[in-house]
């Protein structure tokens, strides 16, 4: 083979290799954009459902406002929900990339939970009011403040994001364990009074939305807690179908406020529980 032919062959091979590499880079970018588009869709749906879940306690607070009394309702779930939203807002601002949907839903959550707590503080008796103030100072002021200062001054960059992400993940896993209380009560009472099927279904769907949002963005701090949310949501719906026509069993002990549950927003969530003295549903977010 002549030098000219050999040179032509090598050049042609190099061009093909470059074209192949270019196609690979293009396909990789195209796949990344496609993945981010789907993540946005799931995150948007998660926002819409989470908006509804955050507003679920409105009837409760309307009754509190109307009767000028908290009637035994507890403030702890709303303090926890506010803390969760604050955590995820901080995580989103540190992350920055693809964090808009986390910021929108958790900003809404902070506003709504703050309104709930304000109403509670206005109409609660002296002892529950003081307890609520202590909880807010302990968790939302000193607890969050200590976490904020330590991560700002003792870590930076990817390490800071990882620390905040792990805090959010562990906190939300602990919140998602709350359905165990209502599942236990359903089994003992053979009654689904405290576990509305519709709320459980929507919270399960919400967990699915945020799981795929986190998975597609490879944000496992968002995705992993919502696997538990989905699992507990399925368990609750199965329990509802098992016990919906069962004959209730009366218990000697009264229903504790902490055991009658309301909602959990996962996500990043975003996680909240709404117990009350009369019952309520229990779901499994998110919030992101």
UniProtKB/TrEMBL annotation:
It is found in: Cell membrane. Keywords: Cell membrane, Membrane, Repeat, Sugar transport, Transmembrane, Transmembrane helix, Transport. GO terms for cellular component: plasma membrane. Mediates both low-affinity uptake and efflux of sugar across the membrane. Belongs to the SWEET sugar transporter family. It is a multi-pass membrane protein. This is Bidirectional sugar transporter SWEET. The chain crosses the membrane at residues 38-64, 76-93, 99-123, 135-155, 161-182, 194-216, 222-243. Its main location: membrane. Coiled coil: none annotated. One of its GO terms (molecular function) is sucrose transmembrane transporter activity.
